[in-house]
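Lab notebook, design round three. We kept the backbone fixed and only want residue identities now. Task for the bench partner: fill in a sequence for the structure below.
Input structure tokens:
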């Protein structure tokens, strides 16, 4: 009888130990969850997402991937709110206030402008709601405040200077003998900027040309236009330049949508993209990648929205679990030319 009681006691202790192990919890990969993660039910947490403009092709792709990544991380689809800022900074600020009033546990903001980010930061910090900026980097002065005050604010994205440099490299790699179609020893170019107040636009505009100049290319800016990241606007800009008879050898576009708009305009002219005029963009949209493969677009710079969406979801999970994030979570661009466009396109379609 005594031996039976000892055996039962041993079984009870073993069972308690196993149950304790189950209580502690493991994720789907068998990795033990932290005590903080275990105490938080992500499905009950509210996530507020502000996108500067739903009609932006790149941000539409990003938004779709972000929704998937948040759900895959454990957040409930019913507790994720997406708002369209309609490229209006005042509207976006009011949306941030509304989400805070509705009790969101974390904010994810793709700011309409870098200038409005400071106000959004102040609103989030005052409400004690963690804030994640995506894709459009706030001003350096605002980022400095996050670090100095140890606020729960972070930025997830790439360094736009790198994308500008890659654009310059794409043209440089083609060589002066190919790009200088009139043989005058100078590259005549047009710059189509996205938004002059956007830091990414500023960096892409500056470093694309600076890279070529540093490489020894003589440059002449024929025209510097604002396309607001819109395909139709870039189409109109390029159509006007062609109608005026402007000699252009290179067109730098701050994003792929505008690069495709330029190609649309060339399709209605006697100029051929990739032969008479060389066009570069940024983002790595499927259509742009296919145009590179087909020989029309000179190149682009791939901005991996899927990986950035995953990083954003991971940062949101840490914030609502009471953990901190680095104030800058960086990613890297990928230079895309005819040599690797098919590989990038295949990865996107998977």
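Proposed sequence:
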């Amino acid at each position: 009888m005594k031996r039976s009681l000892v055996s039962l006691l041993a079984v009870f202790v073993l069972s308690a130990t196993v149950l304790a192990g189950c209580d502690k919890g493991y994720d789907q990969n068998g990795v033990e969850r932290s005590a903080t993660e275990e105490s938080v039910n992500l499905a009950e947490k509210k996530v507020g997402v502000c996108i500067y403009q739903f009609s932006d092709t790149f941000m539409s792709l990003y938004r779709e991937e972000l929704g998937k990544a948040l759900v895959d991380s454990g957040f409930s689809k019913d507790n994720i709110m997406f708002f369209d800022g309609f490229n209006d900074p005042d509207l976006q600020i009011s949306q941030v206030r509304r989400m805070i009033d509705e009790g969101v546990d974390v904010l994810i903001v793709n700011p309409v402008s870098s200038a409005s980010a400071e106000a959004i930061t102040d609103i989030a910090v005052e409400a004690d709601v963690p804030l994640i900026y995506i894709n459009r980097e706030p001003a350096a002065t605002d980022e400095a405040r996050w670090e100095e005050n140890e606020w729960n604010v972070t930025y997830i994205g790439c360094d736009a200077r790198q994308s500008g440099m890659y654009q310059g490299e794409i043209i440089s790699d083609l060589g002066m003998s190919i790009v200088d179609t009139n043989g005058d020893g100078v590259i005549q170019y047009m710059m189509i900027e996205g938004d002059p107040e956007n830091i990414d636009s500023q960096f892409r505009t500056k470093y694309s040309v600076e890279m070529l100049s540093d490489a020894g290319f003589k440059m002449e800016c024929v025209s510097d236009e604002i396309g607001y990241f819109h395909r139709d606007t870039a189409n109109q800009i390029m159509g006007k330049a062609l109608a005026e008879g402007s000699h252009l050898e290179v067109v730098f576009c701050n994003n792929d949508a505008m690069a495709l708009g330029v190609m649309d305009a060339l399709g209605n002219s006697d100029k051929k993209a990739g032969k008479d005029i060389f066009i570069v963009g940024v983002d790595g949209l499927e259509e742009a990648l296919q145009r590179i493969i087909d020989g029309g677009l000179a190149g682009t710079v791939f901005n991996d929205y899927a990986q950035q969406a995953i990083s954003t979801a991971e940062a949101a999970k840490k914030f609502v679990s009471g953990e901190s994030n680095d104030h800058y979570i960086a990613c890297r661009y990928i230079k895309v030319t005819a040599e690797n466009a098919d590989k990038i396109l295949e990865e996107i379609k998977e």
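Keep this in mind before ordering anything: The longest strand covers residues 219-226.
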